[in-house]
Write a structure and sequence with these properties.
A hairpin with a 4-residue loop joins strand 1 and strand 2. It contains two helices and eight strands; from the N terminus they run E-E-E-E-E-H-E-E-H-E. The chain is an alpha+beta fold. The protein has a single domain, classed as L,D-transpeptidase catalytic domain-like.
């Protein structure tokens, strides 16, 4: 029987001694995120107002919903931001709550692991004109600094095809 592993995100000192950005004041923070995979675009919202837009890069196999570990797809659907990693190997990262209960059930029924560790992260030191992640959502490091400050844990994220 497949049992998903518990994942712990431990806070550690940022790479090269740089402090991770503090969260912005509550009145400046995003209240939701929308990712449009087909347009390779992520928008942060405060209420109904778009407060920031970012070009994104996705998994190496960007079409379709993530099904299993190693398929290199970016999930689709409704999730939340449920962790922050100031010591990410991709600059900074925000954990997306994939797999959901539905994702885990589908994988269990199929007899395979659903995968995990899906993040919004930096790592684009320069512009990359192609999808390159293993299923994550990537932006430039400078953009990730701003996103990290604007997006608290618990922020809903909708990822559309």
């Amino acid at each position: 029987m497949f049992r998903p592993a518990l994942v712990l995100v431990l806070s550690a000192a940022p790479v090269a001694g740089q402090a991770a950005p503090d969260l912005a004041p509550p009145e400046q923070r995003a209240t939701r995120i929308h990712v449009d995979k087909s347009d390779r675009r992520m928008t942060l919202y405060r209420g109904d107002e778009a407060i920031a837009h970012y070009a994104v890069r996705l998994g190496d196999a960007p079409h379709g919903h993530k099904q299993r570990e190693g398929d290199e797809r970016t999930p689709e659907g409704d999730y939340t931001i449920n962790g922050r990693n100031p010591n990410s190997r991709f600059h900074l990262s925000l954990r997306i709550s994939y797999p959901s209960a539905t994702d885990r059930r589908r994988a269990r029924e199929g007899g395979y692991p659903p995968g995990g560790d899906i993040m919004i992260h930096g790592g684009n030191a320069g512009y990359r004109a192609f999808d390159w992640t293993d299923g994550c959502i990537a932006v430039t490091n400078a953009e990730m600094d701003r996103i990290y400050a604007l997006v608290p844990n618990g922020t809903p994220i909708r990822i559309d095809p």
